[in-house]
Amino acid sequence: MPLYYFHLRNGRDALLDPDGQTLIDMNAIVGTALREARAIIGADALDGKIWLAQHIDVEDACGAIVHRLDFEDAVEIERGVPT
Fold first, then answer.
1. 82 pLDDT band (50/70/90 cuts)?
2. What is the DSSP secondary-structure string of 34-79?
3. Average of per-residue pLDDT across 6-13
């Protein structure tokens, strides 16, 4: 199975994934990126500040970006009374 790296970026700084993960296909890549982003957002929420101006770039072993997930696309924010 191919190896993919999940790098966290905010437009200025980057936290690079040194180990990567072996994943079978694009569905696994997308799902893993979504889980990673939501875990970070959840941890940030516990600290009282969610920073949506971040994203995860998923790179293959050659360094090509195969997927990008903006944090604002990882959650749905609802305000008001639920319908």
1. confident
2. HHHHHHHHHHHHHTT----S-EEEEEETTS-EEEEEEGGGT-----
3. 94
Closest by Cα among 31, 38, 37, 29 to 1: 29
The 3-state DSSP class for residue 21 equals strand
Distance CA(16)–CA(26), nearest Å, equals 20
Domain residue limits, the chain? 3-73
CA–CA gap between residue 47 and residue 30 (Å, rounded): 26
Whether the full predicted model's pTM is greater than 0.85, yes or no, is yes
Average pLDDT over residues 24-35: 98
Q: Which helix (H) or strand (E) holds 6?
A: strand 3-9
